[in-house]
Amino acid sequence: MNNIDDLQSKLVQLGLRLDEAKIYLALLEKPATHLELARQTGVNRTSIYRIADELKKRGLIAMTTRDNGKRLSASPPEHLEIELVNKTQKVAAQKRAYNDSIAYLRDIYTGKSQQNANSFAVKTYNGIDGIKQMLWNELKTKSKTILLIGSANIDELVDDAAWAERHRERTVEAGHSLRELRTPENSSRAFTQNQHFMKIYQERTINDSLLPISGQITIYDQTVAIYNWQNNVRVGVEIVSASFAETLRSVFNHYWDLASAETEQH
Question: Which residue segment(s) compose the domain that 159 sits in?
Answer without folding.
Answer: 119-265
